[in-house]
């Protein structure tokens, strides 16, 4: 069993589903910590409600991104963290963390990559009028949403979908699968 860090910036519904599986003893994890980079995001509230340690880092408190990630790194080392799982963490990871966690940083993105990279993936898929989108779990490298794909799941787009309905259906699937894929990665099982 390993210790893992979840990085989040917003609502934290994926963080919640990972914590739920952990609390039900389904996750092959000893300890979860949450790293956030926004003040009072709902993910932090979820951490408080679920008795999970939350560290908050504001980029504006640091000289630059380098110093910011170095202080995150110190916490990860202190907490003996083996894997980082991004779940709605809205900033790029740099070489400071990537070099220390080689193939140990994983992201979930709400599109079938390599289509629709970036923060507006759900809106972009709708605007493009694709009939199939979904989510992708992938390794993180220095380019946005570009690392090797680990797992993908498709979600149909309906004619009457708007951003909210489509995002919700994608997230429902994310919540079903992310913790299961996390388990496989940690156990070294084939996905
Ligand atoms: C998810 O849809 C994930 O794919 C993307 O950001 C969203 C985060 O949602 N990277 P939440 O904060 O987990 O509710």
From TrEMBL:
Cellular component terms per the entry's GO annotation: cytosol
Residues at the catalytic site: 109 (proton donor)
Protein's GO biological process: 'de novo' IMP biosynthetic process
Binding-site residues, (6R)-10-formyltetrahydrofolate: 66, 107
Site keyed Raises pKa of active site His: positions: 145
Domain Formyl transferase N-terminal: 3-180
Domain of life, per lineage: Bacteria
GO molecular function: phosphoribosylglycinamide formyltransferase activity
Family the UniProt entry places it in: Belongs to the GART family.
Function recorded in the entry: Catalyzes the transfer of a formyl group from 10-formyltetrahydrofolate to 5-phospho-ribosyl-glycinamide (GAR), producing 5-phospho-ribosyl-N-formylglycinamide (FGAR) and tetrahydrofolate.
Official protein name in the record: Phosphoribosylglycinamide formyltransferase
Organism: Spiroplasma turonicum
Biological classification of the source: Bacteria, Bacillati, Mycoplasmatota, Mollicutes, Entomoplasmatales
